[in-house]
Amino acid sequence: MVEAVSPHASVNSQAHHGDEHYANHLAGVNETRAVVSTGDIYNERGVLVMKAGARLDKSVYAKIKKHQLAESLASQVSVDGTLNRDTLAEEFRRLLGTYLDVQIISETLKLRPELDAIVRSYAINPVTAQKLTVFKHQYPQSFDGVLLGAWLAALIARVHGCSRGDVTDAFVAALCRDLGLLHIDPAIVHKTEELNPAEWRALQSHTIVSKMILQSTSSASGDVLRAIVEHHERGHGLGYPAGIFGDGISLLGRIVGLADTMQAVRIGRFERDKRNLADMMPTLNINALNFGDDVYRAVMEMLRGGGVPPTLDECAQRGDGTTLSAVEGGWQKLAKVSSFLETLTGVLGTMQESDALKRMKAITKQIETVVTRSGLLTEEMGQWLSQCQGKTLAPEDGRVICEMELMISELKWQLRDARKAYDQLFSTIKDNTSPALKALQKMADELSHALDPQ
Ligand SMILES: [Fe+2]
Question: Which pLDDT belongs to residue 276?
């Protein structure tokens, strides 16, 4: 290695968060398209670590990962085939061709030309473009989620009545919301088993890192940066990184958060069952509190007027009893969980106040509200479900059963989030020997058990 001293040695000695993981991703990309240094690259002490014009392969990565670079790696390399306005617009065309329901909604509401214009006029910053390209290459399945989230965020913002500037901000924030994942250990990002608290904290940091990427490389507005940080915050307080409740989340943060949830459900859960975006209405009903009433109303209007009929009618007409049995089983589990929540509130009331406990109480109260507002777990509903067993269902009853299936599935997701939040809070309580806390932990374990698929 040539020891040469950079003229910029003292200019920027600040740490570049997660650059090692990003360098590793770049080396991965380099296997199929050239990743080349655009100038000599120095470490923070001014030592040359990579010569201009060199390819960033695995052996170069092994060298540079040991160094703290003077400047961020992204600004010092070029990636062959980096996305630009035209290729990004092409990606969105492909996306709408894949998710025809989204295309039909955009066209029925006559919003496609406006959204196409926003995509075409987006002055994408070179570093942002590079990171999106690396994301597409390294996380191809999540990349469609990034695009779909960006399109939906713009669509919801537009139906909500936001200005053209705010619609563009919603689009940019959603498009860049997950770039921070490139700076987190891929073993954590890919992990399918439950994350431990340290891994969970690392994953949550992608919100902040995504904001830092945009803050340092583009002229993104404060609203965009805030929406990126808030895109996993939820009104019931179970979101992250700050666990903000209700109105504390900005309008764009709520829109991008909802778009993120919708794309995850559409791609992750609905694709398999051949469901479409209009089938999300029962799921959204459960989420009304999480994203604010105004945003909830906008998205319901978008789905009702979008020209895509829900597949729930087909589901109702099947009437084969399988859905009914699944719904009844799910209902019984949730009823059990709901009674845990009541007991939990009782135990929490007897414990000494601390910040963690205050938070647990607030979360439990919000979750109880979500469960109550869903109207699912009433005694009458339980009786009605038992009465349905063994009968030939009328189409309208079949439809209710199918809607319940979707609502139960969403409630289970939210309760799993509650369980994660309890776990995190338990890990922050120093005195974990008190009998009440032990009882709480036991209850949280039972909650998990009740939610496990059998
Ligand atoms: Fe995210």
Answer: 94
Residue-wise pLDDT tens digits, 200-237: 889 999 999 999 999 988 789 999 999 999 999 999 88
- The SS3 call for residue 69 is strand
In whole angstroms, how far apart are CA 391 and each of 321, 324, 330, 397, 398?
9, 10, 19, 11, 11
* Cβ-Cβ contacts under 8 Å for 380 (sequence gap 6 or more): none
Q: How far apart are CA 100 and CA 32, in angstroms?
A: 31
Q: How many CB atoms lie within 10 A of CB 253?
A: 25
Cα(126) to centroid of ligand 1, in Å? 21
The full set of domains in the chain, from first to last, is: 19-79 (no CATH), 85-304 (1.10.3210.10), 318-451 (no CATH)
Whole-prediction pTM: 0.86
Whether the link from the prior residue into 395 is cis, omega within 30° of 0, is: no
Q: Cβ–Cβ contacts within 10 Å for residue 378, how many? A: 12
- For residue 232, the CA-to-ligand 1 centroid distance in Å is 6
Q: Please give the distance, rounded to the nearest whole angstrom, from the Cα atom of residue 4 to the centre of ligand 1.
A: 40
* Alpha carbon of 9 to ligand 1 centroid (Å): 35
Q: Do residues 134 and 24 touch, judged by C-beta distance below 8 A?
A: no
Cα 438 from chain centroid? 32
> Distance between CA atoms of 417 and 419, rounded to whole angstroms?
5
| Alpha carbon distance 18, 94 (integer Å) | 31
Instruction: Please tell me the number of Cα atoms within 13 Å of 408 on its side-chain side.
Output: 25
Residues, Cβ < 5 Å to ion ligand 1: 178
Could you say which DSSP state residue 10 is in? T
Please write the tens of the pLDDT for every residue from 173-203. 999 999 999 999 999 999 988 888 889 889 9
